[in-house]
Amino acid sequence: MKKLILNYHYFVLGLAGFALNSCNSKFRVWVGNDAQKVYNLKYGDDKRQKMDVFLPADYPRESPVVLIIHGGAWKYGRKEHMIKIQKMLFDNNIPSVNMNYRLVKKGITYREQLEDIDLAIEKFNSLSEKSELLPDNYILLGESAGGHLALLYGYKNPDRIKKIISLSGPTDFYSEEYLKSFYSKYTSGTIQKMVGTKFKRKNLSEEFKTASPVANVSSVPTLLFQGNTDFLVNQKQGLALDSVLTRMNIPHKLVFMENTGHAPRFFNKTKRDSIIYPNILEWIKK
């Protein structure tokens, strides 16, 4: 089976070129047992635009590539926070890409972050033939703010995204229920920076609806994880999207976890190993 490993000398020369062009990047290629792990592959000119590519030893050509998007309130976080999920996928023979993206600051909003997802996909598409994988055959897996980005990008690009997995992802920044909630009072400051538009509760810009996954749902099958005691992303966020998906008859599953807070895989090994990882693997393989 032809893989990146068979084009190793040419591929590494190309990767070395990327590394030499980035003085801020530690670049490593690990090869063993016909598997590859490529770290800090650049997909753009910004220092944040890097991704780690994990290719197991053997997989079918039609295998989807899981694109992993970290959380951090859109303005923090890095791909290394998602390494356990990427290693879990690798151990289960699932190709994956784990990406950094530009963080929210002046001039950078969620729109630029969606552009980064697009660029990362285009970069891996350019390698898909060498890795014997199909282009535009992705599952997005995001956590917290990364879950929001996964949902929004996936719903807007159903031609290249086959499934979405969101762990504790926010979904609604505009509905009456959100605007009247206590949750909106302590999240609106962060949300307005992410959207790039001032949050005026009595005269809310249409931009907040545009940024809300619940208002952009398409036919992409969706797996949702939501904790009922999540303070950072209120349980009604997951329930609101579940209701829309149910009403639109879109294949989906809500894993609603009792006595569980935000992104529990960080804090609860039992739930991670018995609930979260098994559901992720089942969703990917079904």
Task: Describe the protein's architecture and organization.
This protein has one domain: 3-Layer(aba) Sandwich (Rossmann fold). It is 37% helix and 19% strand. The chain has nine helices and nine strands. A hairpin with a 7-residue loop joins β2 and β3. The chain starts with 7 loop residues before the first helix and ends with a helix. One of its GO terms (molecular function) is hydrolase activity. Pfam families: BD-FAE (PF20434). This is Alpha/beta hydrolase.
Could you give the topology of this structure?
Blueprint: H1 8-20, E1 28-32, E2 35-42, E3 50-55, E4 65-69, H2 83-91, E5 96-99, H3 110-127, E6 138-143, H4 145-156, E7 161-167, H5 176-180, H6 182-195, H7 207-210, E8 222-227, H8 235-247, E9 252-257, H9 269-285
Parallel strand pairs: 4-5, 4-6, 6-7, 7-8, 8-9
Antiparallel strand pairs: 1-2, 2-3, 3-5
Protein name: Alpha/beta hydrolase
InterPro entries: AB_hydrolase_fold, BD-FAE-like_dom, GDXG_lipolytic_enzyme
Keywords: Hydrolase
